Each structure stands twice: as structure tokens, then as C-alpha cells.
Amino acid sequence: MSKVPQIPLNNGVHMPRIGFGVWQVPDDEAERAVGIALEAGYRSIDTAAAYENEEGTGRGIAASGLPREELFVTTKLWNSASETWTRDSVLREFDASLARLGLDYLDLYLVHWPRPMREDYLNILRAFDEINKSGRARAVGVSNFQPEHLRRVIDETGVVPAVNQIELHPYLQQAEVRAFHAEHDIATEAWSPLGQGKGLLEDPVIAALARKYDRTPAQIVLRWHLQIGNVAIPKSVTPARIRENIDVVGFELDADDIEAIAGLDTGKRLGPDPDTFDWN
To answer: Is 42 considered catalytic here?
Structure first.
């Protein structure tokens, strides 16, 4: 069994605190990467319709031979601007993702972006609630939602997302969003938890902590995520790094270390702004 700690979601479902992300992993490489991750002890796999690798991800899951109940599988609805999102279109896309993955149910289904200028995320969440109540997704949530988007979802649909998956790393610590999550019992899940390797892992503060604990910079950052309460989904296709990224439960950062990393926050995004993002 995996030694990765779990977090209870607001509906009682338990989710591993470290998962394996397959963003930018080509479909024909996803089976191998997912297989390595599962062999290394990951039990949470995060994909999305927009990644175009759900089929490869599903093959990797099937080839592992692991019991389905040991796994936590997430995918995301690509709520593209080319579609008017109604209950029926959401259910159709959900069924298509399940078919590509070769699964009977999901553990977590997320809407990929709020696209607030279109205001159809409320319809999407109402359909998600129906999927959740049917048992075909054990939990439902959102990705890249800001507090104002979350507030509308809660107030106008009555749905409290189990998870909000957001860009989050030491250079973008998202204190306001995390505070809203804590107030409403929404789990914070970090995408690009290592800052996409764009300078963060070479930062002098992170490098010094890596030397202090005889760990890699990535392990320091992932341990930080765990200690401040985040779920993290690092991505790699390199076997050694896949294994390193899950080996973060055997040490603990002290309070001064956490404070030093807190000082790295610049508030600058690597990805799109959720308030304006509206691609097809």
C-alpha cells in the first residue's frame, strides 16, 4: 500500500496528498509514465480531456493490475468556448472521458476553467452535482476558480466543490484563495507545484534547504506543500524524478524553513489568469 498521506474531502472521500499529473505527456507515453508512477507508490492520477491522453492514462491504470478501489483518478471537463454548456452536454462529455479512460466511475471530476465571461459554470456545477449523486463521480470540484467564482457556485447552486485545483508554488502562494478554501472546507490542490522548473528549484532558499536536509529541491518544495495543507500533483516522465517526487514523507521542515519559503511569494503567475482565460 502507498505511504502517501491522505486528506478527507468535504463529503468524506479520502484523497492522496501527492498525485501524479500527466499534463503535456503525449498519449503514447502516458501508459508508461502512469505505470512507473503506480509502481513507485502513487495512487492518485490526474489527467484532463484537454490533455488528450486519457486513453493512454487508462491503459496505464489497466496494465498496473491494481484494484480499482486503491486508486484515485481525476479528470477534467474541457469547458471550451465553442460549446454552450447544458446538462446534456456536460453528461455527454463525462461519459466520453469515462470511455477513454476505460473506467466505470471517477474519484474526482473537475471543471477545468471558470470562464466567467460566459457564466455557464453554474450550469456545469449543477450537472456535476447530478453526476456525484449518481455515484459515477465520488467527488466533484473545480480548477482555477477565484473566490468570487466559488462564492457564486456556493450561493447559486448550493454545491460546495470538494477541491479547487489552482496554480500554486512558492512563487505564487495564493493566500487569499487558500483562506477561502479553509473557510468553506474546500481542499486546495496545486498544479505546477514545482513552478514548472522555471527558476524555483534553483532559488537560493530552496537550494539551501535541500542541502540542509540532504534532499532534492523538488522534494523540499513538495514537502512544503504537504506541511501547509495542500494536495500536490507533480509531473515528470523521468523514472528517477517520478520516484523522488513521492519520497517526501520521511522528513519535516521546521518553522523557520516554512517562514523562509513564505518569503519567496511574488504573486506572479506562470499560467493564464482565470478571470480572462477563454480559449477553445
So the answer is: no
